Amino acid sequence: MPVSAGKVYPADQPMVFNAQNPNAPPIYPCGVCHKEVHDNDQAILCESGCNFWFHRGCTGLTEAAFQMLTAEVYAEWVCDKCLQSKNIPLVKFKP
Ligand SMILES: [Zn+2]
Ligand SMILES: [Zn+2]
């Protein structure tokens, strides 16, 4: 499904519960476009910052950079917004 399709979620919630179906898994709206991040999308979590998931395409990460970051379990990625506002290094290595 193209990223451009679908509902836009509120910008302030990293996780949205499905009101119609409480048993459904929560929806993770992308921190850039605020549309749902699907299981089969390439997506990355702003783990040390805002806790939003991001579509790879929305972050500007290249496919190679994305693969490297997701393959490296000790690497934490942060989004541009957190990088600028919270002074967190772009990629942090867990101790
Ligand atoms: Zn997005
Ligand atoms: Zn962030």
UniProtKB/TrEMBL annotation:
Predominant location category: nucleus
InterPro entries noted in UniProt: Wnt_Signal_Transd_Protein, Zinc_finger_PHD-type_CS, Znf_FYVE_PHD, Znf_PHD, Znf_PHD-finger, Znf_RING/FYVE/PHD
Keyword Mitochondrion assigned: no
Annotated ranges, domain PHD-type: 27-85
Biological process, per Gene Ontology: Wnt signaling pathway
Example of a GO MF term: zinc ion binding
GO cellular component: nucleus
Location in or out of the cell: Nucleus
SMART domains: PHD
Alphabetical list of CDD domains matching this protein: PHD_dPYGO
Positions of transmembrane segments: none
The keyword Metal-binding appears for this protein: yes
Lineage: superkingdom: Eukaryota
Role played: Involved in signal transduction through the Wnt pathway.
PANTHER family cross-referenced by the UniProt entry: PROTEIN PYGOPUS (PTHR23194:SF16), PYGOPUS (PTHR23194)
Name recorded for this polypeptide: PHD-type domain-containing protein
Lineage of producing organism: Eukaryota, Metazoa, Ecdysozoa, Arthropoda, Hexapoda
